[in-house]
């Protein structure tokens, strides 16, 4: 209960102002396509130079928490995930917004984020020493299997046709291999110069989700624009609260999966939302409703990606090992202020660390409150006339994909992928499995190479990848997951029919 | 619409005129970027952020410096971009890591070598160290080398990537002991290589002195030797590789500094070359570098040019057989 | 029904061709050690592409209605603006200048309001400038992202 002693630090006027400012700023940055949590935190580091270490960390912690949640806003309203973490939110969230339930979807997403986030931070507070040892157990072979486990989700994810879902995933896996191989530095599949840097995830995400949206709006032509704008009725906060509380299943699946994935260094939490979404669907009695605007989908995805925030700091604070790209930026923020994470950090700098953690706890609550109060207002974005929306998303896509690493090559890749995805979507392929392949490809391939190198030096690949309890558990999960998706998608639908008949 | 276009065009023309009037005499008149070829939060990144803090002071550059991260493939992605795409107008600098980019240039497969860039100044020098886990059976270089000699190719040694300082050190050790290590480049740079040692995924590792010193003081690793000519002030008790009986010089020491693309105007280079060392020596910088355990070594442009040339010769020799 | 089937066969063939290309490259390029994982992906890719092709050829594939002619005609002007913006204008003319023009063109073209009314033109210009001001404020002033300046800004 040591953390309670340091709660005073959070309520100092400047600290509180930073917390509120960081939360609001984080929500806005998170909702802007192209500004991922990692980038938002990196952009804020220069501001912390003028602050004390504690104040600086409060700002960074608040921004981290709220950008993850803010990404849900554009995912729900525009079907453009602000960051990889929000892809799963877009699947059902946007369907809800299209039905006119945008405000409800936003309420649910913020409340679910809050619940997941608070539990995640509590895990960080109470279980850090235990969890830190656990996080170290995952070596290259385990991380490889985890990535493969993620790949097995691909086929069933947001796809009306099993084989086309798998194919989309395969295309994503292949695209992820373009450019320099991260470990050996060999060039692969570089057909022209713009590809030599590889396909960066954020520009790809913008291209694959935003550009098809824009093209779809264009395709409606000049005439129908006025009819299309949807009504956004207000939704009672109390009703949303009741709904979140009653969705215990989705909420707990999301929180548990998010916490576990956040803890494993190297997987990065980008896939927490997607895996939780898939599992929530597998365990739900309303399986078929997922993808059509089912609230459980939003709740599972958002509780997972915020639950990941707290545990992802465990290996960072105790071992100085950042578990995700955002945690790596936070590590830089700590080091700049002369705070060296390590097992003794809680003894050496208790006032800094505990204030930081407390501010994240309070930040989650503030994020829910501010998010909900702006939801009704934000939901109106969906009411904007289509031509304006199309033009705005186009300009945002340009700026967002450029600012990630200030490269025109990224912008061009963004547009080409987007136009390609538009065509593919028309033939029944979908963006979510493709992005999942794109995210998991480098993880799987690099740990595969890495593991093989260690294996060759030790007892050979079979021993290295297939023995030891953790490997065996993960391989069993992979097999179970493949078997399950074959069973549900193939046998149940008599091997032949697409799940949904041609529209 | 016409009137709108006209106004927009007029406004834009005025802006271009203003922009073209301010030439190198007023350089810099807007913020300057520093491209870092490693991820945010890594040692190169946070040191670059520290040493550029005072850039905005009137007596330094008068304009702030912002950091642009382009991580990937051991730095190749960022430096490729810098060599081919960055504007050579002084508004985009890059943080260099020697020997990394020189070795990669020699090894080939990239669009740059030591001649593609003009050095500005050097801010730090971080030697490579050999580390093992805290419970490792090895307690000296001799133990590790004995194991590697008995089990050729089985002494797994993690490092940040191929043809970076850590890899160079591993190659030099192999050459000196006439034995074979299993060098394992990790995904995710120095932090991941450190994790591999702490978690026992590899038997040993080569890492940055500054990061290893922190991990050692937290009790997570043991440091066996320093790959430099002399013992380091941070670790007075740790012997050099030479003292441990291995003929390894300082070719793997990770020098960090700033550079610009080759075609940058000479007056811009001159201005940066006089002002940037002042920035590195600024009181706020030295204080923060000390606070963060970052080894400082300020060198001016001429000294860096000499160092690059020397490194290029040594590395060409070392990498010849590979 | 035949045209419907063709509509699935053509993309399935293209995907199959892509899979073959990826497989060919993965198994022929050097260094082989960097292509181990791409090879695994390529094999699975080819198998799935065959499966997909068989489904398309036998008429089992039903999802996706393909590209409608009217849609393609409608989106063409917007697509052209996009391509010109990304591949030329953004860098040559400067990000803010070219984005303003692109926003204005797209908005004006797809806006159903009549082209004859000057009031509507004023509204289009106003919305464009207001939006671009927000973008400028966020990216240039708050986040200080440097964008290519090109001829203008």
Briefly summarize what is shown.
Chain B has 322 residues and is of the alpha/beta class. Chain B is built from eleven helices and eleven strands.
What features would you describe in this structure?
The complex is a heterotrimer of chains A (503), B (322) and C (153). Chain A has 24 helices and two strands. Chain A is an all-alpha fold and 503 residues long. A two-stranded antiparallel sheet of chain A has the order 1-2. Chain B has two domains: 167 residues, Bordetella uptake gene, domain 1 (D-Maltodextrin-Binding Protein, domain 2), CATH 3.40.190.150; 99 residues, D-Maltodextrin-Binding Protein, domain 2. The termini of chain B are far apart. About 3% of the residues of chain B have low confidence. Helix content of chain C is 75%, strand content 0%. Chain C is flat, with a radius of gyration of 23 Å. The model of chain C has no long low-confidence stretch (mean pLDDT 86). At the A-C interface, α9, α10, α20, α21 and α22 of A face α1, α2, α3, α4 and α5 of C.
Give the SSE layout.
The complex is a heterotrimer of chains A (503), B (322) and C (153).
Chain A: H1 2-5, H2 7-10, H3 13-31, H4 37-48, H5 53-78, H6 87-98, H7 102-136, H8 140-153, H9 162-176, E1 179-180, E2 187-188, H10 201-219, H11 225-228, H12 237-246, H13 248-263, H14 272-283, H15 295-307, H16 314-319, H17 325-336, H18 345-348, H19 350-378, H20 386-405, H21 408-426, H22 431-457, H23 461-466, H24 469-491
Antiparallel strand pairs in A: 1-2
Chain B: H1 2-21, E1 32-36, H2 43-51, E2 65-69, H3 76-84, E3 92-98, H4 100-107, E4 117-126, E5 128-133, H5 141-150, E6 155-159, H6 165-177, E7 181-185, H7 189-198, E8 204-208, H8 209-217, E9 221-226, E10 254-261, H9 266-280, H10 283-291, E11 296-299, H11 301-319
Helix pairs in contact in B: 4-11
Chain C: H1 2-28, H2 36-57, H3 69-93, H4 95-110, H5 118-142
Helix pairs in contact in C: 1-2, 3-4, 4-5
Note the main attributes of this structure.
heterotrimer, A: 503 residues, mainly alpha, 2 strands, C: 153 residues
Report the largest inter-chain contact.
A-C, 73 and 74 residues
Residue share in β-strands of chain A: under 5%
Q: What is the helix/strand order of chain C?
A: HHHHH
State the shape of chain C.
Answer: flat
Radius of gyration of chain C: 23 Å
What is the N-to-C order of secondary-structure elements of chain A (H for helix, E for strand)? HHHHHHHHHEEHHHHHHHHHHHHHHH
Helical content of chain A, roughly? Answer: over 70%
Overall number of structural domains of chain A: 1
Give the integer mean of the pLDDT values of chain A. Answer: 83
- End-to-end Cα distance of chain A, whole Å, is 58 Å
Please tell me how large the radius of gyration of chain A is: 22 Å
* Sequence of strands across the biggest β-sheet of chain A: 1-2
Put simply, the count of helices of chain A is 24
Structural class of chain A: mainly alpha
Which range best describes the helical content of chain C: under 10%, 10-25%, 25-40%, 40-55%, 55-70% or over 70%? over 70%
How many runs of DSSP E, i.e. beta strands of chain A? 2
Main sheet properties of chain A: 2 strands, antiparallel
């Amino acid at each position: 209960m040591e953390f309670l002693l340091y709660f005073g630090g959070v309520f100092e006027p400047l600290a509180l102002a930073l917390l509120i400012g960081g939360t609001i700023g984080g929500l806005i940055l998170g909702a802007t396509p192209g500004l991922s949590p990692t980038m938002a935190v990196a952009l804020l580091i220069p501001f912390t130079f003028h602050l004390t270490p504690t104040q600086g960390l409060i700002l960074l912690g608040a921004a981290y928490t709220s950008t993850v949640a803010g990404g849900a806003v554009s995912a729900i309203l525009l079907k453009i995930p602000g960051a990889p973490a929000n892809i799963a939110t877009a699947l059902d969230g946007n369907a809800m917004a299209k039905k006119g339930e945008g405000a409800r979807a936003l309420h649910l997403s913020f409340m679910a984020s809050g619940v997941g986030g608070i539990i995640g931070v509590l895990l960080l507070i109470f279980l850090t020493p235990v969890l830190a040892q656990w996080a170290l157990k995952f070596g290259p072979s385990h991380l490889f299997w985890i990535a493969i486990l993620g790949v097995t989700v691909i086929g069933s994810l947001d796809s009306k046709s099993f084989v086309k879902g798998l194919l989309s995933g395969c295309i994503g896996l292949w695209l992820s291999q373009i450019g320099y191989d991260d470990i050996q530095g060999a060039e692969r599949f570089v057909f022209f110069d713009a590809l030599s840097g590889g396909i960066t995830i954020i520009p790809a995400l913008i291209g694959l989700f935003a550009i098809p949206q824009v093209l779809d709006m264009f395709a409606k032509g000049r005439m129908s624009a006025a009819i299309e704008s949807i009504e956004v009725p207000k939704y009672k906060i109390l009703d949303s609260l009741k709904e979140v509380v009653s969705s215990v299943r989705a909420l707990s699946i999301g929180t548990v999966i998010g916490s576990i994935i956040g803890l494993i260094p190297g997987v990065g939490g980008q896939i927490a939302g997607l895996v939780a979404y898939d599992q929530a669907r597998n365990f739900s009695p309303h399986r078929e409703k997922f993808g059509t605007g089912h609230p459980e989908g939003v709740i599972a995805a958002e509780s997972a990606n915020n639950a990941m925030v707290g545990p992802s700091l465990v290996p960072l604070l105790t071992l100085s090992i950042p578990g995700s790209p955002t945690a790596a930026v936070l590590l830089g923020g700590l080091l700049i202020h002369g705070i060296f994470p390590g097992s003794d950090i809680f003894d050496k700098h208790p006032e800094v660390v505990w204030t930081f953690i407390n501010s994240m706890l309070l930040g989650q609550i503030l994020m829910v409150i501010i998010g909900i109060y702006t939801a009704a207002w934000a939901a109106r974005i969906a009411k904007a006339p289509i031509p304006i929306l199309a033009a705005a998303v186009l300009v945002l896509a340009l700026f967002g994909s450029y600012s990630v690493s200030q490269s025109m090559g990224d912008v061009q890749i963004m547009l080409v992928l987007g136009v390609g995805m538009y065509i593919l979507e028309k033939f029944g392929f979908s963006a979510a499995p493709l992005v999942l392949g794109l995210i998991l490809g480098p993880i799987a391939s690099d740990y595969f190479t890495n593991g093989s190198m260690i294996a060759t030096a030790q007892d050979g690949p079979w021993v290295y990848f297939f023995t030891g309890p953790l490997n065996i558990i993960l391989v069993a999960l992979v097999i179970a997951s493949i078997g399950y998706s074959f069973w549900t998608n193939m046998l149940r639908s008599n091997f032949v029919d697409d799940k949904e008949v041609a529209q | 619409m016409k009137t709108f276009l006209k106004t927009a065009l007029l406004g834009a023309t005025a802006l271009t005129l203003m922009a073209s009037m301010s030439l190198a005499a007023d350089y810099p008149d807007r913020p300057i970027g520093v491209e870092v070829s490693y991820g945010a939060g890594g040692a190169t990144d946070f040191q670059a952020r520290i040493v550029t803090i005072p850039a905005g002071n009137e007596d330094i550059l008068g304009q702030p410096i912002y950091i642009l991260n382009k991580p990937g493939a051991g730095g190749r992605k960022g430096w490729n971009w810098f060599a081919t795409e960055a504007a050579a107008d002084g508004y985009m600098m890059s943080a260099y890591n020697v020997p990394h980019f020189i070795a990669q240039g020699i090894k080939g497969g990239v669009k740059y070598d030591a001649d593609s860039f003009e050095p500005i100044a050097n801010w730090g020098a971080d030697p490579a160290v050999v580390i093992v886990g805290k419970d490792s059976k090895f307690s000296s270089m001799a133990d590790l080398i004995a194991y590697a000699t008995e089990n050729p190719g089985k002494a797994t040694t993690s490092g940040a990537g191929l043809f970076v300082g850590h890899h160079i050190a591993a190659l030099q050790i192999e050459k000196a002991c006439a034995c074979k290590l299993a060098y394992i480049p990790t995904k995710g740079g120095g932090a991941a290589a450190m994790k591999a040692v702490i978690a026992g995924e590899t038997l040993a590792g080569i890492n940055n002195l500054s990061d290893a010193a922190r991990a050692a003081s937290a009790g997570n690793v043991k440091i066996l030797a320093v790959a430099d000519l002399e013992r380091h002030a941070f670790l007075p008790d740790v012997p050099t590789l030479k003292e441990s009986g291995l003929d390894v010089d300082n070719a793997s020491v990770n020098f960090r500094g700033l550079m610009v693309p080759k075609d940058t105007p000479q007056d811009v280079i001159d201005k940066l070359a006089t002002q940037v060392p002042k920035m590195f020596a600024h009181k706020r910088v030295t204080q923060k570098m000390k606070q963060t355990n970052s080894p400082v070594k300020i060198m001016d442009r001429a000294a860096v040019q000499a160092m690059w040339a020397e490194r290029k010769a040594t590395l060409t020799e070392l990498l010849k057989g590979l | 029904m035949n045209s419907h089937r063709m509509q699935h066969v053509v993309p399935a063939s293209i995907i199959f061709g892509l899979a073959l290309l990826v497989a060919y490259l993965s198994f022929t390029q050097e260094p082989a050690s960097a292509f181990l994982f791409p090879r695994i992906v390529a094999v699975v890719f080819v198998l799935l592409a065959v499966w997909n092709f068989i489904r398309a050829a036998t008429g089992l594939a039903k999802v996706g209605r393909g590209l409608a002619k009217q849609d393609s005609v409608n989106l063409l002007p917007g697509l052209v603006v996009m391509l010109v913006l990304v591949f030329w204008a953004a860098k040559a003319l400067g990000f803010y200048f070219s984005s303003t023009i692109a926003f204005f063109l797209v908005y004006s073209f797809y806006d159903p309001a009549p082209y004859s009314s000057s009031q509507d033109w004023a509204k289009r210009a106003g919305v464009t400038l207001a939006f671009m001001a927000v973008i400028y404020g966020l990216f240039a002033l708050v986040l200080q992202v440097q964008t290519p300046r090109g001829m203008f800004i």
